[in-house]
């Protein structure tokens, strides 16, 4: 057989597989419609989106993956299939910290897939308000974001808001040099958020020692500015390059590889147990010797591991400190439930912000 004949044979096989895949994906979509019909028939407030079920499905796909595709890769494909199936009912409305092209938008699409409708907001408080009002189904806000620097603002909102955490998203952050210039030598100005500039300082010192660095409020704003100035560049994401028609002049220019940031999904409800969950809570104690130790001992007593603790001044005058604590496990799990009961007795304040699946993607 000639190589052309061999290729034709494999291509024929691919065409047959594609037809079969298409049939199966459509059959899956019909099943999703059946789920909706059954739920509708039972009346009451219908909730189509099930974060715990989606997390279970994605975890199973990763486990069952026989290769050669990477587990992350197959999970991403199934993420999009589920997103499209769910959108058959009604695309979810997701508010995020804009403008378009921010890492928060990338996080929203990573978590929900591309079949949702994303709506940019200028401030984190606007996102909380829109979700509280029901204008958005969920919101996505940065919580440990090394680029936008708004962690505290998100944490402060939880002190006042009745919203709960329904999910978390982690995103690897890569910075690129974007411009309309034809060569790097033509660049006189570099725009970006100050933290992104700081994260690329070494690279900028070497490649653009004479260009002025100008800090702006978001990386998407930087991309917008670079789009209108051929002597300027922006340090921003690939999404921003596409959105503002900029060329990627240099890729992955961050000094520290492996920079990951975390986002939270906020909604009117948290998530039922998925098998691998986290619980976030807000705790407070008086400023006295041993108070923090006593506050956290219920977790240690139950053998629960704490994955994060962040302290904030309470601003309410009543309590000195407020701690944002993440622990492993769902609030419905006996050990976590027991620790929470103990905490309620000991802490001045114990507000459970929600239990949600650990990020799968
Ligand atoms: C509404 C449901 O399913 C939705 C659709 C899913 C899918 O396409 O696999 C998964 C979870 C839900 O977001 C449900 O299972 O009750």
UniProtKB/TrEMBL annotation:
<dbReference type="Pfam" id="PF00800">
    <property type="entry name" value="PDT"/>
</dbReference>
<feature type="domain" description="Chorismate mutase">
    <location>
        <begin position="1"/>
        <end position="93"/>
    </location>
</feature>
<feature type="site" description="Essential for prephenate dehydratase activity">
    <location>
        <position position="261"/>
    </location>
</feature>
<dbReference type="InterPro" id="IPR010957">
    <property type="entry name" value="G/b/e-P-prot_chorismate_mutase"/>
</dbReference>
<dbReference type="Pfam" id="PF01842">
    <property type="entry name" value="ACT"/>
</dbReference>
<keyword id="KW-0456">Lyase</keyword>
<dbReference type="GO" id="GO:0005737">
    <property type="term" value="C:cytoplasm"/>
</dbReference>
<dbReference type="GO" id="GO:0046417">
    <property type="term" value="P:chorismate metabolic process"/>
</dbReference>
<dbReference type="InterPro" id="IPR002701">
    <property type="entry name" value="CM_II_prokaryot"/>
</dbReference>
<keyword id="KW-0413">Isomerase</keyword>
<dbReference type="InterPro" id="IPR002912">
    <property type="entry name" value="ACT_dom"/>
</dbReference>
<protein>
    <recommendedName>
        <fullName>Bifunctional chorismate mutase/prephenate dehydratase</fullName>
        <ecNumber>4.2.1.51</ecNumber>
        <ecNumber>5.4.99.5</ecNumber>
    </recommendedName>
</protein>
<keyword id="KW-0584">Phenylalanine biosynthesis</keyword>
<dbReference type="Pfam" id="PF01817">
    <property type="entry name" value="CM_2"/>
</dbReference>
<dbReference type="InterPro" id="IPR045865">
    <property type="entry name" value="ACT-like_dom_sf"/>
</dbReference>
<dbReference type="InterPro" id="IPR018528">
    <property type="entry name" value="Preph_deHydtase_CS"/>
</dbReference>
<comment type="function">
    <text>Catalyzes the Claisen rearrangement of chorismate to prephenate and the decarboxylation/dehydration of prephenate to phenylpyruvate.</text>
</comment>
<dbReference type="InterPro" id="IPR036979">
    <property type="entry name" value="CM_dom_sf"/>
</dbReference>
<keyword id="KW-0057">Aromatic amino acid biosynthesis</keyword>
<keyword id="KW-0028">Amino-acid biosynthesis</keyword>
<dbReference type="InterPro" id="IPR008242">
    <property type="entry name" value="Chor_mutase/pphenate_deHydtase"/>
</dbReference>
<feature type="domain" description="ACT">
    <location>
        <begin position="280"/>
        <end position="357"/>
    </location>
</feature>
<feature type="domain" description="Prephenate dehydratase">
    <location>
        <begin position="93"/>
        <end position="268"/>
    </location>
</feature>
<dbReference type="InterPro" id="IPR001086">
    <property type="entry name" value="Preph_deHydtase"/>
</dbReference>
<comment type="pathway">
    <text>Amino-acid biosynthesis; L-phenylalanine biosynthesis; phenylpyruvate from prephenate: step 1/1.</text>
</comment>
<keyword id="KW-0963">Cytoplasm</keyword>
<dbReference type="InterPro" id="IPR036263">
    <property type="entry name" value="Chorismate_II_sf"/>
</dbReference>
<keyword id="KW-0511">Multifunctional enzyme</keyword>
<dbReference type="GO" id="GO:0009094">
    <property type="term" value="P:L-phenylalanine biosynthetic process"/>
</dbReference>
<dbReference type="GO" id="GO:0004664">
    <property type="term" value="F:prephenate dehydratase activity"/>
</dbReference>
<comment type="pathway">
    <text>Metabolic intermediate biosynthesis; prephenate biosynthesis; prephenate from chorismate: step 1/1.</text>
</comment>
<dbReference type="GO" id="GO:0004106">
    <property type="term" value="F:chorismate mutase activity"/>
</dbReference>
């Amino acid at each position: 057989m000639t190589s052309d004949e061999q290729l034709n044979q494999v291509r024929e096989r691919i065409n047959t597989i594609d037809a079969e895949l298409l049939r199966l994906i459509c059959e899956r979509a019909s099943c999703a419609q059946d789920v909706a019909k059954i739920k509708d028939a039972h009346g009451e407030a219908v909730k189509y989106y099930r974060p715990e079920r989606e997390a279970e499905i994605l975890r199973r796909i990763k486990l069952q993956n026989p290769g050669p595709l990477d587990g992350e890769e197959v999970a991403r494909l199934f993420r999009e299939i589920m997103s499209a199936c769910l959108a058959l009912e009604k695309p979810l409305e997701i508010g995020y910290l804009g403008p378009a092209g921010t890492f928060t938008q990338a996080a929203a699409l990573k978590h929900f897939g591309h079949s949702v409708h994303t709506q940019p907001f200028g401030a984190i408080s606007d996102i909380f308000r829109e979700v509280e009002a029901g204008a958005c189904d969920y919101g996505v806000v940065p919580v440990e974001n090394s680029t936008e620097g708004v962690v505290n603002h998100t944490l402060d909102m939880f002190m006042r808001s009745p919203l709960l955490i329904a999910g978390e998203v982690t995103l690897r952050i890569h910075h690129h040099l974007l411009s309309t210039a034809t060569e790097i030598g033509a660049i006189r100005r570099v725009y970006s958020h100050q933290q992104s500039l700081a994260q690329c300082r070494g690279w900028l010192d070497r490649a653009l020692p004479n260009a002025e660095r100008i800090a702006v409020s978001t990386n998407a704003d930087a991309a917008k500015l670079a789009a209108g100035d051929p002597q300027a560049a922006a340090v921003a994401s690939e999404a921003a390059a596409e959105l503002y028609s900029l060329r990627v002049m240099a890729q992955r220019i961050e000094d520290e590889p492996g920079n990951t940031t975390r986002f939270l999904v906020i909604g009117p409800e948290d998530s039922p147990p998925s098998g691998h969950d986290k619980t976030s809570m807000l705790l407070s104690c008086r400023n006295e010797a041993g108070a923090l130790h006593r506050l956290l001992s219920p977790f240690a007593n139950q053998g629960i591991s704490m994955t994060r603790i962040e302290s904030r001044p309470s601003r309410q005058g009543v309590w000195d400190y407020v701690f944002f604590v993440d622990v492993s496990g769902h609030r419905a799990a006996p050990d976590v439930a027991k620790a929470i009961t103990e905490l309620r007795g000991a802490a001045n304040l114990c507000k459970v912000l929600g239990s949600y699946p650990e990020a799968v993607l």
